[in-house]
Amino acid sequence: MTANPRVLIVEDSIPQARLYEQYLKNSQLDLTVVTTGAEMQKFVKETPPVLILLDYKLPDMDGLSILNWMNKEKFSCFVIVITAHSSVDVAVDMMRAGADDFLEKPVSASRLKTSVKNLLERARLQSLLDNYQSTFERKNYHGFIGSSLPMQAVYRIIDAAAPSKATVFITGESGTGKEVCAEAIHAQGPRAKKPFVALNCGAIPHDLMESEIFGHVKGSFTGAFSDRQGAASQANGGSLFLDEICEMDLDLQTKLLRFIQTGTFKKVGSNKLETVDIRFICATNRDPLDDVAKGLFREDLYYRLHVLPVQLPALRERGSDIIEIATTFLTEYAQEEDKAFVTFSPEVKTLLMEQYDWPGNVRQLQNIIRNIVVLHNDTIVQLSHLPAPLNSIDTTAIISKLSNNAPQQGNQTQVTMSTGLGDQIQPLAEVERNTIEHAINYCDGNIPKAAALLDVSPSTIYRKKQGWE
Description:
By secondary structure, the chain is an alpha/beta fold.
């Protein structure tokens, strides 16, 4: 990124636009103002900005139309929607259409500057990620196992996010490794030698949660027989990980928001204000925007936390990682239980990778491998060793497929070359184009994300797309 990131203000009220310029005058930004959607489209095509401040209601079109146009044209820049016509439904629609933040008029200077600062930090990290060229595939990374493309992208995001103090918001299904991700961010960053404190907001009773986070003084409530340090004090200088953040009560969400904004808190039963230096990392297995729409999660807290998002892929999306992870667990548990298991039969490998969706993800796979090792003793895991629900899967097709693909007897050797494009071998240029277009579709049109998966620079993809068109 340049020293002065380009920011476009799209606002039909000139006085309002000048107010935003005044708010941001000391932020070292290259600011430009346009008043219509058409002007905005022309500007974005000619000189793409890093960030757009977008008024929801313009004379010629609304914010949703503009976001849809940006998605169609594949313009990847950050967008803050600003509107006087605010509602939770509108906010959710805007965020799902690609907006990165949503502000309600009148916008305060502090709120605008905070949002702009957060998104420019994300843009800086994205730029580092785009320019990062990996020279090798990592099969293990701070507790993660797997070398699939989705996980390589996660590793690079962690590399880019770890040095920052910005809040990280991890999402993913239960069992995908959200706490492992949080620990990796901590271990990869400058706070690695400081404390990492984890709290599961869904496992602690609501009436004790405030005390768990902030601590309490003796006599502040029944059972408080002595002063107690909370997670906030314990994590001072390090990282505080709040798992299942969407389970937190609304009243406590308000206090947490104030704590994140100021870095100060009071213990339960105390009037003394304490200050700490903490890197916040949070996670949820739910859709936080749904909870915002339902009134279960504070909108302003969501925007404060959702600075650097990390989406962990489900196990079923990770291909051969399933076997890498299963083999690691098999080796570990065989040593613990003094068993002879060393590998899986081809039928079991095919079933694990292709015939089951793994709703419990890595945690479920771990439990299944432990079950097999404890209850059986062999060198190779066979279909007969699999517990429920895997033992109820029809394996006829698997056995038939492996039998048909078995090598021929005699001196002849079967060689099969798969291009992923059918039996016909296509020109290399067509294979390259199909691969790039598949990656873009897989990433819902997000070219920087597709570039990360393909391990190339986004500029390479933009240049090739321009050549095709």
